[in-house]
Amino acid sequence: MLSEQMEDYLKAIYRLERDGEPPIATSTIAETLDVTPPTVTSMVEKLADRDLVEREKYKGVTTTAEGETVALEIIRHHRLLETFLTEKLGYDWAEVHEEAEVLEHHISEEFERRVAAALDEPEVDPHGDPIPSEALDPVDDVSATALSEHEEGGRLEVARVRDRDPAELTYLADAGITPGTVLTVDEVAPIGMVTVKLESGAEVSLPDHIADAIQVRRPESERPEDGVSEA
Amino acid sequence: MLSEQMEDYLKAIYRLERDGEPPIATSTIAETLDVTPPTVTSMVEKLADRDLVEREKYKGVTTTAEGETVALEIIRHHRLLETFLTEKLGYDWAEVHEEAEVLEHHISEEFERRVAAALDEPEVDPHGDPIPSEALDPVDDVSATALSEHEEGGRLEVARVRDRDPAELTYLADAGITPGTVLTVDEVAPIGMVTVKLESGAEVSLPDHIADAIQVRRPESERPEDGVSEA
DNA sequence: CTTTTGAATTAGACGTGTCTAATTCCCCCC
DNA sequence: GGGGGGAATTAGACACGTCTAATTCAAAAG
């Protein structure tokens, strides 16, 4: 699992990228998170080791697709929580931030889903900020069931990998599967597994529970920008 | 603040005390929390340093009144969360434990109050276990307002200190205020402060926000046992 | 093409929570 | 009342996230 701190760094870097110009400087991150620059350097090294950010020494960092996925996930948690606290628990909208800031790191995906459902899949939080959607538009799950139905054989682009377990993210990344990867589903091989073929020709077999985390779309479809700003 | 781990140790020790015979052995705690005995020894030393447990070397530990307060607080969080997840988010009662186990360490007192209110101050959780009450029976708050009204001048016993910030707990403990302490409210001195007099004759002035955390009752009143078992 | 200077990194340290291996202690049994 | 044996503690290590102080780098200024 990613530590709470790693999630915070990723979230901060992602936000800074949207405001200013990437790459993001060490000192900027340090100020944002209220830590010293050496601390940022060492944390950023760890993030880079896990391919969550791209790092150029002395220059700064940018998030990778994978890092961005994590950041969006946390931002989604945050905004969903703010909405929930306001709508369902009667918090004043001004006081939800602190609570959400903590809880965003500790809720499960199950909790996220249930809260979103209870709120009727909201698209903006009480501050009016857009809540990053769980699924990015024309999206399916690469899973035995979902795929045997309609996309089998077709070219698909990985849109997101909805998984917060870095062991699995790393596993997928090592196998060459990250957001942006184009793949085809080869067959719905042994029970409980899915086999996909990458553009490189490599074939990868995945257990269903991992395949389920991969969200895909048709390669050429437009990608409506996901508006995401300050929380 | 207490770490998540410290809270877990306290909760475990508290529970073990209720089952078996105190003092609780190092090895018992180790098994419960799935850590090694040396780890328990070192953690227990820290807990003892903060007066959250009483320790007898080579014998074991028992919780102090202060440690018990923390344990009960966490257990209350846990059971309130289980109830909330079940009632309001449609979780199956069998699957709430994991989620509550994590969240119990991260919700604020505000969240706790609002959840309890939303559930109509429940007294048992979905497993049927009693939810430790926020206030112990005939209880008031030692705060400027609460006290200027009815208990001014009377003898009061400290029932609980509802505060999870150890800096404040330590501050109070150092001042001689812990559960069981008998005190009188001297006057509602400068604005935003409360002055209390201890049996020792010492006078302590407290800012309202700390005084608010102290819950008192009349000294001789019965203390109906707070039924609390497994979660 | 130097020099300067401010930012970034390295070096070395610390507190927390954990571990394994070594040692010490308590207490029961003969 | 001395041994043994099992439990507990000490010793020493490590990963994490953080810090300060020292060093190195890069890019702008001359």
UniProtKB/TrEMBL annotation, chains A, B:
<dbReference type="InterPro" id="IPR036390">
    <property type="entry name" value="WH_DNA-bd_sf"/>
</dbReference>
<dbReference type="InterPro" id="IPR050536">
    <property type="entry name" value="DtxR_MntR_Metal-Reg"/>
</dbReference>
<dbReference type="InterPro" id="IPR022687">
    <property type="entry name" value="HTH_DTXR"/>
</dbReference>
<dbReference type="Pfam" id="PF01325">
    <property type="entry name" value="Fe_dep_repress"/>
</dbReference>
<dbReference type="GO" id="GO:0005737">
    <property type="term" value="C:cytoplasm"/>
</dbReference>
<dbReference type="InterPro" id="IPR022689">
    <property type="entry name" value="Iron_dep_repressor"/>
</dbReference>
<feature type="domain" description="HTH dtxR-type">
    <location>
        <begin position="1"/>
        <end position="64"/>
    </location>
</feature>
<dbReference type="GO" id="GO:0046983">
    <property type="term" value="F:protein dimerization activity"/>
</dbReference>
<dbReference type="InterPro" id="IPR008988">
    <property type="entry name" value="Transcriptional_repressor_C"/>
</dbReference>
<dbReference type="GO" id="GO:0003677">
    <property type="term" value="F:DNA binding"/>
</dbReference>
<dbReference type="InterPro" id="IPR001367">
    <property type="entry name" value="Fe_dep_repressor"/>
</dbReference>
<comment type="subunit">
    <text>Homodimer.</text>
</comment>
<dbReference type="Pfam" id="PF02742">
    <property type="entry name" value="Fe_dep_repr_C"/>
</dbReference>
<dbReference type="InterPro" id="IPR036421">
    <property type="entry name" value="Fe_dep_repressor_sf"/>
</dbReference>
<dbReference type="InterPro" id="IPR036388">
    <property type="entry name" value="WH-like_DNA-bd_sf"/>
</dbReference>
<keyword id="KW-0804">Transcription</keyword>
<protein>
    <submittedName>
        <fullName>Metal-dependent transcriptional regulator</fullName>
    </submittedName>
</protein>
<comment type="similarity">
    <text>Belongs to the DtxR/MntR family.</text>
</comment>
<dbReference type="GO" id="GO:0003700">
    <property type="term" value="F:DNA-binding transcription factor activity"/>
</dbReference>
<keyword id="KW-0238">DNA-binding</keyword>
<dbReference type="InterPro" id="IPR007167">
    <property type="entry name" value="Fe-transptr_FeoA-like"/>
</dbReference>
<keyword id="KW-0805">Transcription regulation</keyword>
<dbReference type="GO" id="GO:0046914">
    <property type="term" value="F:transition metal ion binding"/>
</dbReference>
<dbReference type="Pfam" id="PF04023">
    <property type="entry name" value="FeoA"/>
</dbReference>
